[in-house]
Amino acid sequence: MFKYQQIIFDADNTLFDFDQAEAAALVATLAHFKMPRPPGLIDFYRQMNVGLWQQLEARTINIEQLKQRRAEQLFDFVGQQADIKTFSLHYLDELAKQQILLPGVADTLAHLTPHCEMAIITNGLARVQKPRFANSSIQDHFGALVISEELGVAKPNPEIFAHTCDLMGWEDPAKVLMVGDNYTCDVQGAVDFGMRSCWFNLRQIKHNHSDHHYEIKQFDQLLTHI
Ligand SMILES: [Mg+2]
Asked: Mind listing the domains of the chain with CATH numbers?
């Protein structure tokens, strides 16, 4: 019998390989708009995007400002302009096509699914998450896909965890395990709501964090804690 039978997963860089998806979508979009691809582009974009998402999580900018600033800074870097809205929508649609799972995800979920009820909470964008999930090989494993943009509340706000438990009919947060790569959103958010947490330290960073209950560095290590 598994210790946890109610599990919530983050999506990007927990189940899906977001780094690869981001790079592939960016390259495809630049090609579509016949824009150059200067050296260092992917690293520049990744760093810039992480910074903007941190500002979004800290609520110093909103999602529209994030999209706007991301495009502006990208156009400055490549030295060519395009219509921001058209470019952003094309990029998001390219991103939605990327369904690369991280190593071990498919097998681990298949192993868990007969024993566990599972849900996803993502702070990603609905235009990306919904089609990607609908076309993904793993969708049958999950009872709910909760998207912060649709709910109007994002991780680490306890409301999004409460909403997901309600949807799944789970009454006791202490029985729920949250698995994710983002320490603030996934681990601290879940712990603040009274859940157990498994931090996916994907980048294998050294740290002094102590709020999580479990730490894994590869997805399939999850099975040793369940
Ligand atoms: Mg993530």
From this structure: 6-16+100-224 (3.40.50.1000), 18-96 (1.10.150.240)
